[in-house]
Amino acid sequence: MALFEGPDGFGRCLWCGGAPEFVPYHDHEWGFPVSDDTRLFEKLSLEAFQSGLSWRTILNKREAFRAAFAGFDIEKVAAFTQKDVERLLADAGIVRHRGKIEAVINNARRARELIAEAGSIAAFVWRYEAESPAAPQSQTTSPQSIALSKALKKRGWAFVGPTTVFAFMQAMGLVNDHATGCVSRDKATALRASFVVPGTARP
Question: InterPro entries this protein is in (predicted)?
Fold first, then answer.
């Protein structure tokens, strides 16, 4: 598998060569297991905004999104009103798309219900971790992303199609999709080995 050589001479996933800001994002975030509900909700929200756009656009606006959506605090976003929708539509720092803005607010309300059902978003989504994932970066959906997408849609979530959900699963470490030979692949594997899936306990 082709790799991108970073400034330190180590090989990384080829997509890191697309923009300078991709390297720190790849090295410190992408593909490492996450159990924090705020981060999981944020990523699902940002993936919704990315639909039809590039991740570079969203990544460069991430701090503006965080400011606009109260740090993606689920309770705060769930309490947003139509006045907040209008405020967000006037915010030039984010993607001003009414459907996506309303979807994030809706999803915060659905997230509260999911937490009441499963204990946490993390406990729910980690049920869909792939036991035997396909070769790295060989697919844009998976049986698990299709199943998780259906489960979320059934619970009223919006902008959570299988491709969007698979990108979320890649980023949050539910699948280790770092390329073979990538400097971060072994790190992601080691972090997953020590990661305790929410709602479970090590024997």
Answer: Adenine_glyco, DNA-3mA_glycosylase, DNA_glycosylase
